[in-house]
């Protein structure tokens, strides 16, 4: 009864509707909508003004649409937005169920997909309007419930006289709880073939990401000027698999609708196609939210609008802010780009602007923009390596107490950035000299910076600083997606481990350069010819067999021997595990009992018998924050002239993530008391990357993508889970000589923070295999 009372003001009599449509006359018929025919009509409102309307009459002969009828009335009476169709009223008389909408003069988007008159800029505007409507449904204001449309397609986006998109046909919609990061509903699978989310079709589980998938289909329809399912005689009948393949191969130009490619600004196309492709990801977690989709479409439109207006989007504002005392000299854009790649001072010497190798904007903001709690502790000095006229020198880095509240003004929208503190520690002149001499970045350095980001509830600590090619130390503070050129960063720099002085240059914003995925070739052992197996067997394979813990038949064939050594054998009385990799290179793993040495180390560990280890016994740390490893590699264990990596193989107790965030410092104990400063750092767990939200509205930003750091240590110290369930982290690398002799390596592994302990760490051993 409450619903009927709520909707009473929307009732329109059947007589009024018949009069408006000439009794549902053929001359007023304009098409077929969801669950019924649609007619055009004229209705007078209470003020006497005539309004053009669209009248949808449900097909009662087949009993269609009762539930959908009520759903649509409820949705459109409660949810109002400029990108949703407006419900004028309804009629429920004489077994007639009729919906009356405001008439959208340009009809549905599907009519214009293949229209050469619809420009790329117009298509972008339409998509932006549609995205705004969906974003509103997914993230309604106030206490309204989230709406999952369930039938997103080009036919359900209507266009008004200004070509503004409006979402229609809510009969299949479902509602879910408001203000929740995740909403999923189990329902009978409905929707339109070609647009329906495959995961929804398979599981019946409906989420807002199901609408995102369908919207991605619409975006590719707009780009390619065709429906997602073609005619039966069409060579490429299904658009989406074709679009995905084309995007992955970089051949989108082959399927873009004729005439559009010539209109497009390159970054506009790149931004649009990228977000459309992301919408179609198989895993829901990898799909963007509608907030992210809307931001990308607006950026694509910004690129296109700037391109069409003839105003250069690049460099004009930057050049106006360049240092007037040192004017830039260039004769063409190539020379200008070269100058900007090297970098220039702007904003009265407070910023350093440069271009990345992909010509994305980079920005370094001077430490002169920081707020120091005790200005008297700061000495402003020139520095030969700095890009600014002065840098901030602090006598002791032990206590910093620096408030940073800065804004960028030049970043490239749509790009993921990392923010880095740029500094030097006094006494690091040797490191800088090495960088200058070799031209490559130096070893990572232990610094231990504690800081607090405004958008992160707890303080953070970063132990290791990387060294850039120009000799500066950098520590990554956070990462973010740049939605606008102006991005605000607020962070409080508390202290470091260092008692020495520190020189602060500023905070630099650099685009994330995503690392390439290493795709190793999997060799099917069973398909390798016997002759090739014999070639891959090491020359001393008979000596290796003699070292095996378990007896190997003397008459074993080369084929079986190769398979045996590929799978691995225990040697050295069960204290070593020897195997060949896919290229026939020797590899081995040494047990914890054979490598953990020294009285202090042995007192810190106790031994556990377990079937989960190749060796039947592992070592668990009971106390202490350091231990020694002594490796003894017999000559048969290693291949000549080969670059190897040495890995610690271990596991951690459950629910222990917070205990092991501090990395291990790995030092060669043979040089431990020498003047050598060479050391590596090995992480026991993946280091957390703070990804902050730079959008200042009430949208749902829960699915900011996970990002990888821009700078890496010289070794791959990112811990990984192995196929056998253990963890491994790279702790050193080495190279064998042309003639392999017995190799020995001695290491001290200690937590970078002496206040912490390694209690609970379980060591299986160390493994050496090719880099």
Automatic annotation (TrEMBL):
Origin superkingdom: Eukaryota
InterPro entries assigned to the protein according to its UniProt record, in alphabetical order: ANXUR1/2-like (IPR045272), Kinase-like_dom_sf (IPR011009), PP2-like (IPR025886), Prot_kinase_dom (IPR000719), Protein_kinase_ATP_BS (IPR017441), Ser-Thr/Tyr_kinase_cat_dom (IPR001245), Ser/Thr_kinase_AS (IPR008271)
PROSITE patterns reported for this sequence: PROTEIN_KINASE_ATP, PROTEIN_KINASE_DOM, PROTEIN_KINASE_ST
Keywords: ATP-binding, Kinase, Nucleotide-binding, Serine/threonine-protein kinase, Transferase
Binding site residues for ATP: 56
GO molecular function annotations of the record: ATP binding; protein serine/threonine kinase activity; transmembrane receptor protein tyrosine kinase activity
Coiled coil spans: none
Domain Protein kinase: 24-301
SUPFAM superfamilies: Protein kinase-like (PK-like)
Gene Ontology CC, one term: plasmodesma
Pfam family, one: PP2
Protein name from the UniProt record: Protein kinase-like domain, Phloem protein 2-like protein
